[in-house]
Design a protein that fits this description.
Layout (H helix, E strand, L loop, with lengths): L2 H8 L5 H13 L8 H14 L9 E8 L15 H11 L3 H9 L1 E9 L10 E3 L17 H20 L4 E7 L4 H12 L3 H4 L10 H16 L6 H8 L2 H15 L4 E3 L2 H13 L7 E3 L7 H9 L15 H19 L3 H4 L4
Parallel strand pairs: 1-2, 1-4, 2-3, 4-5, 5-6
The site of nicotinic acid (NIO) has 13 residues, from helix 12.
Length: 349
Amino acid sequence: MNLLQQTMERIQGLDQEMVGKARERVDSLIKPPHSLGKLEELAVQLAGISGELYPEFDRKAIIVMAADHGVYEEGISSNPQEVTYAQTMFIAKGITGVGVLAKTAGAEVVTVDIGVKGDFPNDAGVIGRKIRQGAGNIATGPAMTIEEAIRSLETGIAIAEAEIQKGANLLGTGEMGIGNTTPSTAILSVLGNIPSEEITGKGAGVGSGGISHKAQVIKKAIETNRPDKDNAIDVLAKVGGLEIGGMAGVMIGAAANRVPVVLDGYISTIAALIAVSIEPKVKHYLIASHASAEPGGKKASELLGIQPVLHMEMCLGEGSGAALAFPLVDAACRIMKEMATFSEVGLKI
Ligand SMILES: Cc1cc2ncn([C@H]3O[C@H](COP(=O)(O)O)[C@@H](O)[C@H]3O)c2cc1C
Ligand SMILES: O=C(O)c1cccnc1
């Protein structure tokens, strides 16, 4: 049996007894019912995930998966493809958006090359797990083979497990890959059965053909590859990307170890759709951070059925939104542990 299969079989649902206890405690805290809104739901979810009434997530890590995309040659981006390589180096150095926001949240950033064009020096601080030098051009053929798609998922699982072994108890997902809003939107178009024109956005900067050209490329990719909507691994292989598979793998690996995962924006949410399609129980372990400004973001969150908590008009990627939401996890834990209950203070309402 392969690692993916074995890991999926280890995933369990939430600890329902602890969910009940956590809800009881949240409802007994000195506040009007439900007045802490989504923070209450988060506290209950974290108790159900960890099996503890007072969990603590003091070892946070954001796993950034980096890869390139052959579909770049269709002119879907205004940015040079080499930005993927350069920015991956900068992410590892801690000088990009995710690095600074992770520092603010006390989180580590783990940078993984799962398919960037070009090789990194050994001392770059980038973990080398390259499956191939970029995904294939989805407008003319598949992004990768089924075997490579499974390898991308298993790479994510292995990276998540390694971080958890080292002590991480809260993970976040991030990515770097010029062009990756194109395969992300192709996946959403297939899984959500939504015409590409309705969900295609500018990403980090659209090519000279504009958004309509990008939507046409996505449509062509789907027509060319005919992915099977009911087989998420087929969808990932045909119109996805290596970093998307890697992030989905991180989610599967974290869920198997009962570790919560905070999703970043659009591309992470698409990876979550793949992970949850492969194994629906993964959903219990996911926390959505921010609502991406990318037009498909809203549809992706709706399809996933998890609403983001922050509305910051961000669309950076890299794991930046996940880092920004980490303190909310700490806040949810602290209300459970440190707020008093009505009976403790002798108050009745
Ligand atoms: C300098 C720079 C830094 C980034 N960091 C994340 N992205 C984001 O933009 C890319 C997706 O947008 P598209 O599909 O339009 O290429 C991904 O790399 C994503 O992480 C960046 C993009 C740029 C240009
Ligand atoms: O929301 C995101 O994650 C996003 C959107 C556009 C470009 N890069 C990332």
